[in-house]
Amino acid sequence: MAEKLPPEVQAQLAKFQQLKDQLDRLLLEKSTIENELREINKVLEELSVLNADATIYKIVGNLLVKSDKTSVEKELNDRKELLELRSRTYQKQESILRKQLEDLQAKINEMLSKYYPQGGQTGIKA
To answer: Is this entry keyworded Cytoplasm?
Structure first.
């Protein structure tokens, strides 16, 4: 039978798992933002080839609403700016979380080697 881990190691492992879950959620949100940014860039590229007086329709809920090119471009550029800001924020948070996970992983491995010095192979990997 496997030995039960000391409470302080269990607490650190729980913290490690929480940080890992937090990183996973952050990466999912970041991916969603990056996908939306790519879509906005494609739409802006398509709009750039249209005449200024071109008729444009945008989806609002379940409706197609007539709009002008300038206002649609402004809305898209505003949204793009907001998403880019969020993306930069998420990149910083990701970096911080990865560093915390790395530090915690080293701490847990150190604790495990203290409790199980003969094991040699005991440790966790991110």
So the answer is: yes
